[in-house]
Amino acid sequence: MKKRRIAILGSTGSIGRQALDVIRQHRDLFEVELLCANNSSELLVQQALEFEPNAVVICNQDKYKEVDSALSGTYVKVFAGMDSVCSLVAADDVDMVLAAMVGFSGLRPTVAAIQAGKAIALANKETLVAAGSIVMNLARQYRVPILPVDSEHSAIFQCLQAAGPNSLRRIHLTASGGPFRTWSREQMEKATCAQALAHPNWNMGSKITIDSATMMNKGLEVIEAKWLFDVSADDINVVVHPQSVIHSMVEFEDGAVLAQMGCPDMRQPIQYALAYPSRLDLSNEKLDFAALGSLTFEKPDMERFPCLALAFDAIRTGGNMPCIANAANEEAVAAFLAGKIAFYDIPAVIEKCMGQVSFLQSPSLDDIYTTNEQTRALAASMIEKW
């Protein structure tokens, strides 16, 4: 395998940190060219000192002087702002871009990287949720591979590699069920932020952990899977699998089902995307089937988890509706984390925005940016009056 030069967008987040651990284990195969962070300036400096990239970007321009001063005695170039990110991902010395920024903010630099012909390891699901048709068309136009990093989409991708030329019949997208899988609706109505952040299986950032608690994360993954694998929403079945051992499954015309299994560790799908098509040694926990005991499966409860139903509604409607749902969710989750609204106010905000923001059947990229801004403004206004 030829050495690959990697740009990591969101290097201080959960995915970014685990990606750097993968690279740490294979310094002979990967080289870090660019590190980007939003606010975590201190950790960004630590990463830059260890991995010595060509450049770093701190998106929060107020922290530029802090980062620049800390790295002044090194060869690392320091930049600030999203314009810098979009420019640097196009550099000749970048082979692959790991898109791991949180939320809608990941769309613009991912589009810039695609237009520069860079391979994309996609961990930012909101890019395809908000602008799936546009992004996939750009990837085809510029002949850019988009390699999924989400554990579920990586699992589907790996199963399809094993299937050869055979086309899938249906995707079975697994969900852990989150911290509230066994809670009643009455209990969930009183759920605190701390309880929602206590995921039983995965260690993730706060936003995605709340999305898991509402099951909006699974809804966003349904939308992402539709674009990645060119299927309809009706061909995607969500199944709750509390053990998080089977990361997803693919069913074929003859009824055969292939599953990808592993311990819940995001480093495996990250490494698979960075090294594709090679498989490398990874210092991680391996499955002990005898110790597993049993694997169980349940249907998701759309009544207790209305965000999942709203996501299905959004992708079936199409157009800019998934963008509306995503933007409303981001605002609502931020408000919940800040203690401004209750747990079930999250789907309420999403549903109201889906009913009030102007619908566009065939949005342009500019339309998507406008939809995002309009939805956020509406959601913020609603939350202030809650």
* CA gyration radius, whole angstroms: 20 Å
- Compute the average pLDDT: 95
Sheet with the most strands, sense and barrel status: 7 strands, parallel
Number of helices: 17
Estimate the helix proportion, in percent: 40-55%
* Total DSSP E strands: 11
Strand content: 15-25%
Order of helices and strands: EHEHEHEHEHEHEHEHHHHEEEHHHHHH
Give unreliable regions as ranges: none
The spatial strand order of the largest sheet comes to 4-3-2-1-5-6-7
Name the overall outline. globular
**Oligomeric state of the chains in view:** single chain
Describe the model.
This protein is of the alpha/beta class and 386 residues long. It is built from 17 helices and eleven strands. The chain has helices spanning 14-25, 41-51, 64-70, 82-88, 107-115, 126-141, 151-163, 185-189, 193-196, 206-214, 216-229, 267-275, 289-292, 306-317, 321-337, 345-356, 365-384, and strands at residues 4-9, 30-37, 55-58, 77-80, 96-99, 119-122, 146-148, 168-175, 236-240, 246-252, 257-261. The strands form two sheets. It has a seven-stranded parallel sheet, with helices on both faces. It has a four-stranded mixed sheet with strand order 9-8-10-11. Strand 5, helix 5 and strand 6 (119-122) form a beta-alpha-beta unit. The longest helix is centred in the C-terminal third of the chain and has 20 residues, at 365-384. The radius of gyration is 20 Å and the shape is globular. The model has no long low-confidence stretch (mean pLDDT 95).
